[in-house]
Structures are given as structure tokens and as C-alpha cells.
């Protein structure tokens, strides 16, 4: 008798569902790895990163030698009470860092960023001449 159906061995993610069911659900809900979309337009790059649960003041952007870096941190805690007593308490803190090589032909001083409804949108205008210094980008 087989405890794991034969067809599940070919689907790697479902294998972990059966082998470690509690771990898979925790990694999916607690891990801090945002989804990012990058769109190249004629005159700029547009980068959108989903950062749910992150506060605007916990986001840092910088661009140096054509590499855009996004850093974000977050903290969360959960507490379950029953009849006035804490029966379960969890805390999570994490830091994320992503870098994107946009090349040297960008207008570093004209990069703009906006954070709204958990989505960070960064507009990076293209240029002809490469920049020579690091530039901090404010998040509005």
C-alpha cells in the first residue's frame, strides 16, 4: 500500500504538501519575498514591487552605477487569546533586498518613486550619458 499517490511524485510542490504540510503553509504566509514587475518603455523603466504590510518609512531605494536597489523591512505579530489567556503568540521580522541592473544610460537624478496601497512604483528615465555617483531616491 502506498501512502503517497504515485502521480504526486512528479509534482514537486505537491510532494512537499504531503511530506511537510505544516511547513508549506507557513512559508507561503510568512516569507517576505515580494513580486516584482519590470516594464521597459521607450523613455523609461517602470518597476512595480508588491510590498504588503510594509510601511513607507521602512523602504529605502538607491541607484549606483546603473543598479537600482530596493530594501524594505517589516515586523508583524499575532496573538491568540482564549478566555483572557494567551494561548498562542508569534512574531515575525524580516528584511528584503532586491537589485536590478538597469545599465548606465539612465537619468539617476530624475528617478521617482511612489508607494501607494502596498505597491511601490519606481520610474527610471533613460538617458544617453552614464551617471557617475550614487543617488538616494525619496519615497512619496
Describe the SSE topology.
Blueprint: H1 12-19, H2 21-30, E1 36-40, E2 44-50, E3 59-64, E4 67-82, E5 85-101, E6 112-116, E7 119-125, E8 135-137
Antiparallel strand pairs: 1-2, 2-7, 3-4, 3-8, 4-5, 6-7
What this model shows, in words?
The structure is a single chain. By secondary structure, this protein is mainly beta. It has two helices and eight strands. Strand 3 (59-64) and strand 4 form a beta hairpin. Helix 1 crosses helix 2. The longest helix has 10 residues, at 21-30. The model is unreliable at 1-13 and 21-31 (pLDDT under 50).
Summarize the entry for a quick read:
Residues 27-140 form the SHSP domain. This is Hsp20/alpha crystallin family protein. This protein has 140 residues and is mainly beta.
Amino acid at each position: 500500500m502506498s501512502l503517497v499517490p504515485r502521480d504526486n511524485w512528479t509534482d514537486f510542490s505537491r510532494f512537499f504538501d504531503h511530506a511537510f504540510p505544516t511547513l508549506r503553509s507557513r512559508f507561503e504566509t510568512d516569507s517576505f519575498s515580494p513580486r516584482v514587475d519590470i516594464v521597459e518603455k521607450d523613455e523609461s523603466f517602470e518597476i512595480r514591487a508588491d510590498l504588503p504590510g510594509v510601511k513607507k518609512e521602512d523602504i529605502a531605494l538607491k541607484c549606483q552605477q546603473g543598479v537600482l536597489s530596493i530594501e524594505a523591512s517589516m515586523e508583524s505579530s499575532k496573538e491568540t487569546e482564549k478566555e483572557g489567556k494567551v494561548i498562542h503568540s508569534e512574531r515575525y521580522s524580516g528584511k528584503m533586498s532586491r537589485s536590478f541592473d538597469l545599465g548606465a544610460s539612465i537619468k539617476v537624478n530624475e528617478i521617482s518613486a511612489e508607494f501607494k496601497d502596498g505597491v511601490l512604483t519606481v520610474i527610471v528615465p533613460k538617458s544617453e550619458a552614464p551617471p557617475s555617483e550614487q543617488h538616494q531616491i525619496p519615497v512619496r
